[in-house]
Amino acid sequence: MVMEASFLANLVAVFGEYDISGELEAKRSISKNVRRVIVHRQYDAATFENDIALLELETPIAYDSHIVPICMPKDDDDFTGRVATVSGWGRLKYGGGVPSVLQEVQVPVIENNVCQEMFQTAGHAKTIINSFLCAGYANGQRDSCEGDSGGPLMIEREDGHWVLAGTVSHGIKCAAPYLPGVYMRTTYYKPWLQTITGVQ
Length: 200
Hints:
This protein is of the alpha+beta class.
């Protein structure tokens, strides 16, 4: 699915942003117009299956010290048990306010069957499918929240480079006990990403 031109006319991708309250950063952000939005054809808003999309820019972005690409994971990468970092400008707590400065939080990646059991313990009959990746704590504590959707769940490799383990998709409340955050698993969607972009 590709978005209509009227929607795209107002859509801008901003790179290198940190404080959205003004232009006080030492490094300026860069804005790029979006040519098209490619939404996964099997996206299901009811179940959040295939909750992933790509933005194609009208012109390329130039990298800088504060604007760098993230690495794709290897096909067989399993991040279970690893501590990941998720970032965004989403709400600071469920029903709370939003920050002006980019936030980050560390959360452990959980096995899907453990994630399924946690949701059941919390009284939610949610199915955790293979394309989902869960991250969070049994007692809550830390989580992504409303407004973080689409943001990165990142893991640092031994060589210092960061890998995109997943993208923020959904959850129930934020940082609630036995309700971890649910992300789209990057390794699952690599074939789709490669087909759309032509990048292997």
